[in-house]
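Hello forum,

I keep getting stuck at the same step: I have a sequence, I want structure tokens, and every attempt I make locally crashes halfway through. Rather than fight my setup again tonight, could one of you with a working pipeline run this one for me? It's a single chain of 465 residues.
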Amino acid sequence: MLQTVIRVEWRNLRRETSAWITVSVFAALVVWAALNGRTHTDVMTQSVQEAHSEQQQQMQQWVSALAAGDENAQDAYKAGKDHVHQVVALPLSPLASISMGGLSDTVLRVSLASRLESTGEAHVGSPVRQATGPFDVTFVFVYLLPLVVIGLSYDLLSGERERGTLALILSQPVSLVTFTLGKAIQRALVLLGVVFTLATVAPWLAGGDLSEPGAPARLGLYLLLVAAYTTFWFAAAVAVNAWGSTSAGNALALMACWLVLIVILPGFVSVGVDVVVPQPSRIELLNLAREAAAEAEQEASQMEGDHAPDRETLKDRYRATVKRSLEVQQELESTVKPVLEQFQAQLSEQQALVDKLRFVSPAIILYEGLTDVAGVGVDRRSWYLSQVDRFHDQWRSFFSEKAANDQSVTAADIAALPRFHYAEEPTGKLTLRVMLGSLGLVFPTAVLLLLAWRGLRRPDAVSLR
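Reply #2:
Ran it on my machine without issues. Output:
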């Protein structure tokens, strides 16, 4: 009998102009968001290319100066500090365009400078604070998809009651539970078909390469999250219909749920996380860098002193200045390291708290999951920055050891320069995080369906109270 209800509901749904208008508008918004995401990722890609182009140009100038026997180019300290650097960037994932909130601040300049100076422009902020600026696919699914579900399902039962057809339908060999479930399943299948199509097409429209390694797994997790989120809201609609009496009342109740779960609770969680685990003070970190740099420059100036009477004395003083500058940088690094570790610990503590509190709202679960799948989440960023830190140590060691030993840089050293190679986070870690988050959607969905089942089995469920 369930199949019959689904088949009849499909015939009825095809004649509902308002339903198809709603779905069409939603589809247009997803396409718009995907194209907007492509524009944003194109800008990011161009910025990275320009940074790499500038790096290559500077490298070629340095190599030419080395070939010409330029003493400044051969000076390891000046070369590492002023003449050559390495641009590192977090590669965009195939689904990066669906969530643009974390695409910025992942392009870093690595040089002989301290780690603080190299990463001082990195973003430090609350991991739960959602980006309200860019209009991306994640925004459409988190905020607007529930409204589409509400528009399609707020009157599943109440509409039949108000038209006086419910009692007639139930005079047939079909239970109220089967009838309601059949209507909900049909509408959910239609919307999920549209959503799956849009969710698959959106990364392609945004220029994502779904043939890249790991892309199918990310796409599968992406579809799983969206499907679980859609099912949750249909379950909420069925529960409200089971206990509600009028279409207006059902719509009001569902909109109240949307307001609480999508707007109010995420706001409370964001504020709560910032209160319990305050954001690291970026100003304090930058002030520390300025003070240390000022002290280093002042000490270097004092060591230079007056002009020496001969060239050899000048060289000796310069060597002493370089060695002392390296020592000061090492001292700065030792001072900065615990501060940076504290910053990272605070951010990790914030994210751990978010991971616990995300279960209070399906919107947080979906947002965190989609940003993770898109490759712009906190975990992938931390994974990337840890590799940048190790590479920065290698880069500094290459030049500082030569400078400390008064060794010149030669053309043969170019091939030995450290190169940054990003190693992608294991897919298993991403899958585990997303699957755990999905449980926060599956469990309340089951509870809502149980609540709906109990409501539909009440003796007065058919009558309009």
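The chain has one domain: 2-271+361-402+410-456. If your local run keeps crashing, start a new thread with the error log.
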